[in-house]
Amino acid sequence: MIKSNPVIYFEIPVLDMDRAIHFYGSVFDFTLEREILDGYEMAFIYFDSDLEGIAGSLVKGDIYQPTKNGAILYFHTNNINETIERAMQFDIEILYPKTINKQLGYAIAEIGDTEGNRIALKQVITQ
Hints:
Helix content is 17%, strand content 38%. It has 127 residues and is α/β, with parallel strands linked by helices. It has a single domain (9-124), classed as 2,3-Dihydroxybiphenyl 1,2-Dioxygenase, domain 1, CATH 3.10.180. A four-stranded mixed β-sheet has the order 1-4-3-2, covered by helices on one side. A hairpin with a 2-residue loop joins strand 2 (33-37) and strand 3 (40-45). The longest helix is centred in the N-terminal third of the chain and has 12 residues, at 17-28. The termini are far apart. This is VOC family protein. Residues 6-124 form the VOC domain. It comes from Sphingobacterium corticis.
């Protein structure tokens, strides 16, 4: 029996690390730390054990190809409208418009990032 969520880390493929760091840092208001690991250029999104979420990184390298057709990562936001507005400053595409599910208590949307990936936004809403 699994006692916790087994997902602990993610990697987002990027083509231009500077552009991707600027996008993710600006849209989600966090700092990424650059590093070279095993020959790959990476920018880490560290996990704070006092908060919810998992750690991950942006990764540039020969095996990392951005796509809109693979797994979709959901990013929590406190205000989905503001997050979409910040993302739109990067001339991105809205792939699934903001949709509110009152029964389940959330709003979601999907956008393209600057690298060609599909990512999702999720905001918990209260009645």
